[in-house]
Amino acid sequence: MLRSVLLFCVCLFLVGCASIQSSYIPTLSEEEYMQATRKAELIVDDTTKIVVVATRMNIMQKYKSKDEVFLLDVYESGDGKKDFIQNGYKIYLQNKTKPLKIQKINKDSLDEFMQSKVMRWSEQYLVTFAPQDKKTTDSLTLVLEHEKYGKNFLQFGYRNIKKEARE
């Protein structure tokens, strides 16, 4: 009797773990988002001045573009005006390429998937760069810089994930 109960409990545990494990596998969109996203901060005197979460939209299947397009999710600390470009921050590629366009966007203009990924207290910007050559795109690095606070790098060099039908 004890053996039967023990065997039943072990079987129940193994079956339960198998179903839980499969629920943690990300969808293809989530996996692409994780690969396409980097975070940078500029911290001065133990105070976070800015947090930038950048997503390279070109990597994600449903946002393909001939240009290099990034969605920046920007949080600035302090009571001043919340516009990181007007506050002296610069964003450019490591090869010194400046953006063609920096467009502040409303969170509501993003699709449901991207809305779920942005911080609710931040501002969102679409930053567009001219198309880059293959050598540059394999090791693409976005630079966030401020004259007083220094700079930080968001490196987007990666290996493509296998295109699996997970969704």
UniProtKB/TrEMBL annotation:
UniProt keyword list: Signal
Signal peptide range in chain numbering: 1-20
Organism encoding this protein: Helicobacter ibis
Domain of life: Bacteria
PROSITE patterns: PROKAR_LIPOPROTEIN
Keyword Signal: yes
The protein's name in its UniProt record: Lipoprotein
